[in-house]
Structures are given as C-alpha cells and as structure tokens.
From TrEMBL:
The lineage of its organism: Bacteria, Pseudomonadati, Spirochaetota, Spirochaetia, Spirochaetales. InterPro entries: HATPase_C_sf (IPR036890), HATPase_dom (IPR003594), Sensor_HK_TwoCompSys (IPR050482), Sig_transdc_His_kin_sub3_dim/P (IPR011712). Its EC number is 2.7.13.3. Keywords: ATP-binding, Kinase, Membrane, Nucleotide-binding, Phosphoprotein, Transferase, Transmembrane, Transmembrane helix, Two-component regulatory system. It comes from Treponema saccharophilum DSM 2985. This is histidine kinase.
Length: 269
C-alpha cells in the first residue's frame, strides 16, 4: 500500500501540472484568437481592396472607351463634315467665289479642334490649383451654345489642402457638369460657386454647378443619365478621392451638382 504522504505529493504534482497547462492555454488562446482575427480582417480587407480595384479598373476602361466614342462622333459630325465640304468648295471651278465660306468653315473646324484638345488636356491643369483651373474652365465654357457662365469664388477660399490628384478629379467633375449643361440642358446660364465651409458645415471645399435648363427626372431617368451624361464617372471620381457628390434636378427646374471635399489635414499648434 502506497504511503499517504507519497500519494498526496503525487496528487499535488498532478494538480500543479494541470494548473500550469490551463494557465498556458489561458494565455495562448487569446493571443491565438487575436492573431486569427487579425488574419481574417486582413484577408477580408485584401479581398475588398481587390474587388474595388477591379471595379475601378472596369469603370476606368469603360470611361476611356466612351470618351473615345464621343471624340470620334464629334470629329465625324462636325470637323470632318465641315472640312469635307470646304474641300468640295475648293475643287469647284468657281472656288474663288467661295473663299470666304471656305475660310469660315476652316476657322470653325480649328476652334472645334482647340476645344477638343482643351477638354482632353487643359494647358493649365498641371498647376494643381483648383481655383485657377475652375476660373479657366468657366472662361473656356462661357459663350458656348449661347450659354453664359457666371463664376463666384468667396474671398479667402482655401483649397491648399488638396492633393494634385484631388484637384484633378474635382476639376474633371466640374468640367463634366458644365459640359452636360452646355450640351443638354438648353439653359441660358450656368452658375458656378466655390467656397469653404460656413459655421454650421463640415470643414472642406464646396463646389456647386447649377443651370436654369430643362432638367430631368432623377428617379426615372437615372439609367439614361448614367449612360449618356457621365454621372457614373463623376460619382466614381468623387468616391475615389473621398468627396461627396449629389445631383438634384427635376423637369423644368434646372440641375444642381454639388461636390464637397472634406479637409482632413490635421493642423497642429
């Protein structure tokens, strides 16, 4: 028969070993759990990033194809036809009687080429100054299709917190909004307003483009507007830089495009 003291000592050793085992488990289990949770979060984030990247790539490619189609249509419907007609006039026996008309056609074609070139790569966009770029945009658009463009920039408006990419995307959104109004709204005037926040608003840059045109039904014409008026591209640009874009319109009441770019730059004293 085993000595009671030896049996107690053996039981104590067994209990001690179990205590050590469970202590190790208690320490390791949370650590393993945390590491597993981190791994899952990183995996989900990677998948989300990949999905968003693919989606953006898709819309980028589609946007490029739509832009190419638009340029092709403009070249064919305006410049090519005018140049072809001018050429036919120049080949006539009485061409000297049509020199003024030929010159006018060629002058108009040259203006169209300049306009296309400006829309593709405005010469001043490299300045990364959204305020100056908006001024240039409004000056370029003023008078097109008989539309007057009125620009208002509140004194002291600060856009220095914008990165070069943010300034570029905001410019493209404004450019698309103005182009839509000029080509489709049948408006007489476009009003552009650039300002910073008021006392009750979130800090950042606010951009508004409105027209007094025919407007559209945003609820019923969303698909058509997205396809033909570039709304999806504007939304994608806004989403890419973390801006908030809203489009308000109704038939006969014009259209208002609003863009808010938050100022997330932290200032330290």
């Amino acid at each position: 028969m085993q000595d009671p003291a030896s049996e107690i000592a053996a039981l104590q050793a067994m209990v001690h070993s179990y205590i050590q085992f469970f202590l190790v488990i208690d320490v390791l289990f949370p650590v393993v759990g945390v590491l597993l949770a981190i791994a899952i979060i990183k995996f989900v984030a990677t998948l989300k990033k990949l999905k968003e990247s693919d989606e953006y790539l898709f819309y980028t490619i589609r946007g490029q194809e739509e832009e190419r189609s638009r340029i092709s249509r403009e070249l064919h419907d305006t410049i090519a036809q005018d140049v072809r007609y001018a050429l036919s006039l120049s080949e006539r026996k009485d061409a000297q009687h049509h020199l003024a008309e030929i010159a006018q056609l060629l002058k108009g074609s040259l203006l169209e080429v300049r306009s296309l070139s400006y829309n593709l790569a405005p010469p001043d966009i490299t300045k990364d100054d959204i305020i100056e770029n908006i001024k240039d945009l409004c000056a370029e658009c003023n008078g097109k299709n008989g539309v007057s463009v009125r620009l208002s920039i509140i004194d002291g408006t600060d856009a220095s917190f914008l990165t070069a990419d943010e300034a570029l995307h905001l410019y493209r959104i404004a450019q698309e909004a103005c182009t839509n109004s000029i080509k489709h709204s049948k408006s007489a005037e476009i009003a552009v307003l650039v300002r910073n926040e008021t006392a009750a608003e979130e800090k950042g840059l606010y951009l508004f483009i409105s027209d007094d045109g025919v407007g559209f039904d945003t609820a019923r014409a969303r698909t058509g507007f997205t396809k033909h008026y570039g709304l999806k591209g504007m939304q994608n640009r806004a989403q890419l830089i973390g801006a908030l874009l809203t489009v308000r319109s109704s038939r006969g009441e014009g259209t208002l495009v609003s863009v808010f770019m938050p100022n997330l730059v932290q200032t330290t004293i």
